Amino acid sequence: MPIRKAPNPPIESPPDLLCACATARRAARALTQLYDSQLRSSGVEVPQLGLLGILYKRPGSSQAALGRMLGMDKTTLSRNFKLLKRKGWVEPAPTQDERERGFRLTRAGRERVRAAGPLWKKAQDQLRSAMSAAEWEIMWKVLRVTTQAAYRARQDLVRA
After folding, report:
1. 137, burial (CB in 10 Å: exposed 0-12, middle 13-18, buried 19+)
2. How many CB atoms lie within 10 A of CB 38?
3. What is the pLDDT of residues 34-91, one digit of tens each?
4. Closest CA to 92 of 79, 83, 105
């Protein structure tokens, strides 16, 4: 007689928080935990894979361009690149603007991205399968709208 797996118990949603930032950070932590659990065997964590993945597609990207794409400040990027260089996954690369620091993947970095790719896809598929198609589309729209609104609000503060 085959063994039947018990269904997963429903997961209780955490309480709503009054702060949009705290709620978004909680969502980001939940996503990071999901993706990191899949990526663990590759030795790459989600923040590292984000940088490595962009450099895989755009070798020689400048630190400033990467910061704009990922919404990361210079200090955070420098700290991440220091770690990636120490692991032997990235190396300096020339950029069109000599005043900016550029990076590219090393052979080990390219191999790491290729190894992590199927694991990332598994995490992405797991998340997608936990939502309806409509929810998936809504998630992307809400993330875009929220990001744009935060940038606009921040610009308004800078101008004031």
Report:
1. exposed
2. 19
3. 999 999 999 999 989 999 999 999 988 888 889 989 989 889 999 999 999 999 999 9
4. 105
